[in-house]
Amino acid sequence: MTDARICSLWLPRLAIERWTAIGGGTPDRAVVLTLEAQHGQLIHAATEAALEGGARVGGRLTDARALDPALEAVPADVAGDSAWLRALALWAGRWSPLVEVDGSDSLRLDVTGVAHLFGGEARLLAEMEARIGALGFTVRSAIAPTAGAAWALARFGGGAVLVSNARLAPLLAPLPVAALRLSAPATHTLVRLGLKTIGDLAGVPRKSLARRFREADHPLDALDRALGRKPEPLTGIRPDPPPRALLRMKEPVSHPESGAQALALLVPRLVEQLEARRLGARELLLTGYRVDGSLAQAGAATSIPTRDPKHLARLLADKAGTIDPEFGIDAFTLTATWTERLDAGQEALVGEPSGETRLAELVDRLSVKLGPDKVRRPAPRASHVPERANGWAAGVHPPPSVGGRGSTGAGKPQRLLDTPEAIAVIYATPEGLPRRFVWRRKVHDIARAQGPQRIAPEWWRERSTARLRDYYKVEDEDGRRFWIFREGLVGDGRGGPPGWFVHGLFG
Questions:
Q1: Most buried among 173, 278, 317, 444, using CB within 10 Å?
Q2: Which residues are registered as beta bridge partners of 473?
């Protein structure tokens, strides 16, 4: 008996739930997904309404429509389901270093020695089911010492099953022989022989079944794998390798222009791979393999995904010239180490690049010439405090949007001072509207004022003595408009009297 712990995740309604999730319809519609067969269309999956109307998975569409003439039929997207399941397997690497796609609707994970990281096996299964359920998919799971037993218990054991070595055989015994993953003819033969459960099969001598079953589909071999008497190794899924173009030299080259010459041949080959996989390059790495076993590398990055061969070649042209062949280079590779989805599209009727594309290409070229840390762009930050809500990021790596977590631009001035400047304010009441303030030795009489807009301190990154701010938009008698704020309140217990500051200017 093995000490391994294998998890099986079964998505029994993967096809129909994925069809619903991508906008195909709602579960209350009587819809079936069909596959073409030799004698007509077969039902591959069905909604709850279709099942209630008499449709049966594996049955014929004509029989189902005889019971429900209004039944809708949609071709099944088997290739799309398979691609989605593969993507889910890569995503499931958060729970196990070894994940395998198991058939068309399930995954197998080796969770040996990792359950304690999630608080135990019960919590691990709960997290798996909760996260996959949040995606809109039904899932049933089990953890057992063998892959075969986990598969059987996930489908026939009621779901969310945890099995130890000592309890494995008793739990498998009442399950039907179909839980051994036998072919349909083999399962039918066992039922005809009266061997309907795994417990019935366990006591049968192997020789008595030798003539009725092929060695590859022998039920006792399947039982031995489920009980751990025979190995059933897992083959983990691997992510697709990055697009890579290879150029082997007939003779080692040692002249400085070899990198640029190799680049002219490698870029078109790499672009072909990017087009075939509908990807755009964000980072490129040119590698020269020296005869002494060392590497010479040069890279470049782009601000938006692209597979324009002229632009990619131009970015790497100067970098390729810096590759030192030393004693000689006998091979070059060009790898897109970072890619993003890029579907085919027409940018303009006249064939000219769009303004966004031109700007991105300019940023890319400047970053290569000056260095990525010398070309920067404004970037939002997740902060409610105005001076922290904006910053700078590398031009070739625009940061993601912070959504609603940052300070929005609504109501903020066009010019924001880097550091608020202290001012002297005269006001009617301690917490009332300001009437006059002095900034940079000049007195400003306030004609109009709007506010306050209160911004609380960020307790998770500031000390407990940080004070709230009340912002006002004010306009003086000369028409100049300012953004000022009062820091703190009278008697708030966080310092002396409130202070006043000017933070920005309106146009």
A1: 444
A2: 450, 483
Looking at residue 2, the DSSP 8-state letter turns out to be -
**Counting beta carbons within 10 angstroms of the beta carbon of residue 24, is it exposed (0 to 12), middle (13 to 18) or buried (19 or more)?**
middle
Torsion of CA 222, 224, 226, 232, to 10 degrees: -80
Q: What is the pTM of this model?
A: 0.65
pLDDT at residue 408 in the model: 47
Cis peptide before 252 (omega within 30 of 0): no
Contact of 440 with 422, CB cutoff 8 Å: no
Q: Is 311 helix (H, G, I), strand (E, B) or coil?
A: helix
Q: Of 42-51, 199-208, 387-396, give the range with the top mean pLDDT.
A: 42-51
Coil, strand or helix at 385: coil
Sheet holding 31-37, edge to edge: 40-46, 31-37, 72-75
What dihedral angle (degrees, nearest 10) is formed by the CA atoms of 9, 15, 17, 20?
160
Measure the CA–CA gap between 383 and 490, rounded to whole angstroms.
25
CB 247 within 8 A of CB 265: yes
**Both structure tokens of 396:** 């070739």
Give the Cβ contact number of residue 490 at 10 Å.
Answer: 11
Residues in the chain: 507
Residues 6+ positions from 161 with CB-CB distance below 8 Å: 141, 142, 143, 144, 153, 154, 171
Query: For residue 114, which phi and psi values (nearest 5 degrees)?
Result: -115, -10
Residues with Cβ within 8 Å of residue 394, at least 6 apart in sequence: 367, 372, 373, 375, 376, 377
Q: Where do we find the tokens 């039982």?
A: 223
Q: How far is CA 10 from the centre of its chain?
A: 21
- Dump pLDDT digits (tens) for 270-288: 999 999 999 999 999 999 9
